[in-house]
Amino acid sequence: RFATDQTLPLPVLDMMWDLALPKETDRDHRYCNPMVQGPHLENVKKLKRCLIIGYGGDIMVDRQQEFVTMLVKCGVQVEARFDPVGFHNIDMVDPARASAVINIVREFIL
């Protein structure tokens, strides 16, 4: 879907994971895929609350939505804010979006 994404093309994402993951592992390593079963899920269950903000144009939005589902299944109270309009780091280039994100975070914390 986003093979030629201008912000984070898939070949770049693949290279980043190849460099970050331990040798002889695949994308089902807990560093890359927190949804896999493993002992780390016990620590996830200890989270009380979590805020997830995502945008429809983000190459990883599907994974973010899967992450929300996993957190909910682990009993975490999740506030998920997904906006179909936007892209990864839009809040870094659009002052109005930056202000909106700050307000969302402020409301979540308070």
UniProtKB/TrEMBL annotation:
Which residue ranges does the record assign to the Alpha/beta hydrolase fold-3 domain?
3-89
Q: By its UniProt entry, which InterPro entries does this protein fall under?
A: AB_hydrolase_3, AB_hydrolase_fold
Which GO molecular-function terms appear in the entry?
hydrolase activity
Pfam families noted in UniProt: Abhydrolase_3
- Give the signal sequence positions: none
| Family designation | Belongs to the 'GDXG' lipolytic enzyme family.
This one is known as Putative carboxylesterase 9-like protein
Q: Which organism is it from?
A: Trifolium pratense (Red clover)
